[in-house]
Amino acid sequence: MGQTMAEKLLSQHNLAGKPVRAGDILEARIDGAMCHYHASQPMYELAVEAGFKDGLPRVWDPERIFVLVDHHQPALSQALADENMIIRREVARLGIKCFHDAEPGIAHQMMLDYGLARPGELVVGNDSHTIGYGAVNAGATGITRADMFYVLLFGELWFQVPKSIKVVLDGRHPRYPIAKDIILYLAGEHGDDLAQNMSVEYSGSLVPELGIDGRMCLSTHGVEIGAKFAMFPADEKTRGFLKGRTDKPYEPLVPDPDAEYEKEIRLNVDDMPFVVAKPHQFGNVAPVEEAAGTRIQQAQIGSCANGRFEDIEIAARMLKGRKVAKGVRFLISPASQQVYLQCLKAGLIEQLVEAGAQVVTPGCGVCQPKVGFLSDGEVCITATTRNFKGRKGSLGAEIYLAGPLTVTAAAVAGAIVNPKEVFNEL
Fold first, then answer.
1. SS3 297
2. How many independent structural domains does the chain possess?
3. How far apart are CA 113 and CA 11, in angstroms?
């Protein structure tokens, strides 16, 4: 019997040197560890609690630990500025080579921007959306800060091999981003726990048509459907994306033809409507028509789910010759400085600002209650990651999740609407 991508990944990283199957427990070799704004805790605070009075005595490999100060860059308070200073001190003391400090952006996007996650690698991070590196055929997952403390010291961690779900995507790719609609549609049809503790492996005729931006959206949202890993196969688009970003060799993961999956889900995107996740749950999904007419006060595009070039480009294209509705705050946040620069060079930022959108600093703020707070009774439609109560401040606000087309259409109409009603050129 063949192996899934997850089984191959963990077999190749098993310190015991033996192949493993779903359900097996192993100690695995780690290829890379991503630490973001909470790096001070595993590097210093947990180390002091464990008896290392001066912090971590060493790290297992200074070249395989990647520290990127996101979320709080620029610092939003004195306390966060002080925490960032601890991170700077510890990075210098431990000799960590990869440190992005004065560069705003989301760590997950920057990990791909700089080629720090590669096909076939096992990468962990102290953030749940680390899973997004599966877009480039890496096995990536979020871990606790205590687990990261262990990884930083030893470069290994225990895993239970997950069962796998095969998601087959077929149909024609339109001229606009559809990844968000795909993942929301799957969550609505099968529940937002459809991949609980499992590995999602994408395949199908649509996959070669999806760019890395769209794959990153789907892999990143793996955690919103409970997944441990969410991986795409490596192909020409993967290799093209990595060219110039890394010169290190890599060995892609390929599932065996006779691999055993817990279940298989098929979706033909030709039959898929535009959808929204209504408050206050990722899986509370309905066709956009069921929420049509709901007045909004805020619209957003950004985050590690939808803050990439294709998401911002479609918004600029849709806003050409149009204006954001009066009374609507349309916030757009590029996922990283590299994405921001890409948008600037393409002339997108000027188009967006002229149409009435607000472009904010690259980073995680637009996804959390850090930029664009909501008041009681306000409604926001967003292409960010989550829509639970309080995600944007007020417990009395309502958040709808949608793809960048539906978000932009609402920003123009002042209410949730099917994008095709606003943009008949689609």
1. coil
2. 2
3. 28
DSSP 155-208: SEEEEEPPPEEEEEEES---SS--HHHHHHHHHHHH-TTTTTT-EEEEESTTGG
Give the Cα-Cα-Cα angle 6, 10, 15 (nearest 5 degrees).
Answer: 180
Which of these three, 244, 267, 290, is where a domain ends? 267
Residues 119 and 208 in one domain: yes
Please provide residue 123's backbone torsions phi and psi, each rounded to the nearest 5 degrees.
-125, 135
Q: How many CB atoms lie within 10 A of CB 364?
A: 29
Both tokens of residue 312? 């911002």
What separation in angstroms does the CA of 98 have from each of 73, 137, 298?
Answer: 17, 22, 37
CA nearest to 307, candidates 407, 229, 399: 407
> How many CB atoms lie under 10 A from the CB of residue 208?
11
Distance, in Å, from the CA atom of 14 to the CA atom of 8, rounded to the nearest integer, reads: 10
| Boundaries of domain holding 254 | 5-267
CA–CA separation, 383 and 303 (whole Å): 8
pLDDT digits (tens, 9 = 90+) for 75-111: 888 988 888 888 899 999 999 999 998 888 999 999 9
Same domain, residue pair 263 and 315? no
Q: Which DSSP symbol is given to 16? A: T
Neighbours of 334 (CB within 10 A): 31
CB 260 within 8 A of CB 1: yes
Q: Which of 388, 392, 426 is nearest to 406 (CA)?
A: 426
- Report yes or no on 205 lying in a domain: yes
pLDDT for 389: 86
141 with 57, same domain?
yes
Judge contact between 139 and 231, C-beta under 8 A. Answer: yes
* pTM (whole model) above 0.85: yes
Task: List the 122-125 sheet strands across, edge first.
Answer: 98-100, 65-68, 32-35, 122-125, 139-142
Q: Are 131 and 256 in a shared domain? A: yes
Residues 262 and 280 in one domain: no
Kindly report the average pLDDT of the chain as a whole number: 95
Q: Cis omega (within 30 of 0) on the bond before 108?
A: no
